[in-house]
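Example record

One chain of 93 residues, shown exactly as stored in the release files.
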Amino acid sequence: MKKIVLGTLFAAATMMAANYAPCAGCHGAKAEKKALGKSAIIAGWDAAKTEEALKGYKAGTYGGPMKGVMKGQVARLSDADIADLAKQIAAMK
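Predicted structure tokens for this chain:
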């Protein structure tokens, strides 16, 4: 039973960590970079702010020079995925 619980927790943590992986290429492993030198550094952003931004990118109502790139990146994300990413980014300080 203990192995099942630990395995489930590990799988959940791995899946959650994987959500940020596509973002790391531009934003850095700890969200410490300006994506392509054009965006704000997002590390430690409040989860609500990140969620609002990602949903805005998805809807096409948010963003500056990276609006087109980000719309494509978030198009596949569900609201739950966006909430998970927002929590991960908020934890990166």
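Notes: Helices lie at 2-27, 47-59, 67-74, 79-91.
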